[in-house]
Amino acid sequence: MSSLELDPIFITLKLAAITTIVLLIIGTPLAWWLANSKTRYKTPIEAIVALPLVLPPTVLGFYMLIALSPDGFIGKFWSLFSDERLTFSFIGLVIGSVIYSLPFVVQPLQAGFENVGKPLQQAAATLGAKPFEIFFTIILPLSYRAFFVAISLGFAHTVGEFGVVLMIGGNIPGLTKVLSITIYDHVEALEYSIAHIYSAALLVFSFVILLITYTANRKLSIRL
User: Fold this and answer.
1) What is residue 125's predicted lDDT score, i.e. its pLDDT?
2) Sign of CA dihedral 125, 131, 135, 136
3) Predicted pLDDT of residue 224
4) What is the spatial distance between Cα 101 and Cα 53, in angstroms, rounded to a whole number?
5) Which parts of the chain have pLDDT scores under 50?
6) Helix 42-54 and helix 57-68, axial crossing angle in degrees, nearest 10
7) d(CA 29, CA 55)
8) pLDDT on residue 135
9) What sign does the dihedral 111-112-113-117 (CA atoms) show?
10) Over the chain, what HEC string results?
11) Which domains does the chain have, with CATH numbers?
């Protein structure tokens, strides 16, 4: 019987942490634009952002594999600046995870920005506040609940992903072998006792994250 592996746990947590940070950097301005834009392109972009919610992970992973390959449009561009390939690498996992978990960060942030409302922003603007100042002094403080939800869901969703990381990163120990793939390997090898330990840990982790998120969200709603 195989012993417990710690590398997949560290790789998974590292991947989830980096992915969540990148998602906040990308998702915050995107959610802000979606919350305030009136262009006709808003709805198609919202649909594109939400695609990972309904698209099978293997389908998304397949097209990401093609795009990140040395002959793909992203992989070919990356090769101009680096000798390393994106497929079957940790950086490739981050790119795939960012796309796969994008709606879990953008949608809560968009809802939070929309809930702030226009009157406060208009009042600040009449007092001479610039858009940059309005965002950081009014929007962000009033949207902290949305950020909490976005961070929690983005991190937890990345921890539990399987199809996308398997297609892009493969199963390279110490590099791209995350926890979900480790569980699959042990099940395939009929090592159910080890698979039970990993699966139970993920189950408890997911439940705790959701419990904290809903509890905090409820308390913050009462205070507002």
Assistant:
1) 74
2) negative
3) 40
4) 9
5) 1, 222-224
6) 110
7) 24
8) 81
9) positive
10) CCCCCCHHHHHHHHHHHHHHHHHHHHHHHHHHHHHHCCCCCHHHHHHHHHHHHHCCHHHHHHHHHHHHCCCCHHHHHHHCCCCCCCCCCHHHHHHHHHHHHHHHHHHHHHHHHHHHCHHHHHHHHHCCCCHHHHHHHHHHHHCHHHHHHHHHHHHHHHHCCCHHHHHHHCCCCCCCCCHHHHHHHHHHCCCHHHHHHHHHHHHHHHHHHHHHHHHHHHHHHHHC
11) 7-223 (1.10.3720.10)
Tell me which amino acid residue 26 is. I
The whole-number pLDDT of residue 36 equals 86
- Of 108, 94, 98, nearest to 28 (Cα)? 108
Contact 162, 57 (CB under 8 A): yes
Among candidate residues 82, 77, 56, 83, the one with its CA nearest the CA of residue 161:
56
**Lookup: tokens for 30:** 């995107």
